Amino acid sequence: MFDIGVNLTSSQFAKDHADVVARAHLAGVNGMLLTGTNIHESQQALLLAQQYQGCWSTAGVHPHDASHWQDETADTIRELAGASEVVAIGECGLDFNRNFSTPAEQERAFTAQLALAADLMMPVFLHCREAHERFITLLDPWLDKLPGVVLHCFTGTENEVRECLARGIFIGVTGWVCDERRGLELRELLPVIPAHQLLLETDAPYLLPRDLKPKPASRRNEPCYLPHILEKVAEWRGEDPAWLAQVTDDNARRLFRLA
Known about the structure:
The protein is α/β, with parallel strands linked by helices. It has one domain: Metal-dependent hydrolases (TIM Barrel). The protein has helices spanning 17-26, 39-51, 71-80, 103-120, 132-139, 158-166, 184-189, 226-237, 241-255, and strands at 2-6, 31-34, 55-59, 86-95, 124-129, 149-151, 170-173, 198-200. It has an eight-stranded parallel sheet with strand order 1-2-3-4-5-6-7-8. Helix 2 runs parallel beside helix 3 (71-80). The longest helix is centred in the middle third of the chain and has 18 residues, at 103-120. The radius of gyration is 17 Å and the shape is globular. The relative contact order is 0.15.
C-alpha cells in the first residue's frame, strides 16, 4: 500500500517520527509521500524522506502560504527538487474557502509552480477547495507539459471529479470518505473514479477516519490507518481489497516514477 499524503513534518509527529513510520510499515504501508507545504516544511520533508526507507517527499508552497511567494522561492524549490527523494512539486493550488492568502497571491504561486514543474518535467501534487473553476482554468494550459497530476484529498462534486478525470488527473481519496456526516457525497462518487486514476492517502495527522473500531485514544491520524481506508473504499466500490491495494500502489509508483 502507498500513502500519497503524510504530513510527517507536523508538530504532532515531532516526538515519534520513527514509531509512526514503523507502525505504518507493520500495517503493510510500504510507500509514503511526505508533503511539503512551504519552503521550511519542504526542507524538513526531504530530510525525513532521506532518513526513512520507503519515503519520498514533495517540495512546494500551499495556497495558505502563497502570500510568502517570492521570485527566489522558485529557485529554492528547484534546488530541493534536485534530490532523488523529491518526486513531485507541491502541495500547491487554490483554496478559496479560507483565503489565508488572497486569491491573487494564490494564483501567482500556483502558476509559478506549474511552470516550474513543467520545466523540470515533474508531476504536481495539487490542492483545490471551493475554487474548482479557477483551478481548472489555470491548470489547463499546463496539462500537456506535465508528466502527471494528482488532486489530493478530493472533496468536490461529481461534475468536478468528472472534469478532472477527463483531463487524466489522478484523484486522492482520504479517510474523509469514512465520515458518516461529511463524507457521504464522496462515498457516492467512488464508483465514478476509474481504478487506474485512484490514489489513497491518510493526510495524517489530519482526517482520522471516524469509523475506526476500536476508536483510537488519540485523534491524531497515522499512515498505519491506510489499510482501514483501503478496505472501506474497496467495499464501497465493490472490489477486492488486495487487488485495489496493488492497483493504487502501482498507480502511485507510476505517477511518481518510483522503482
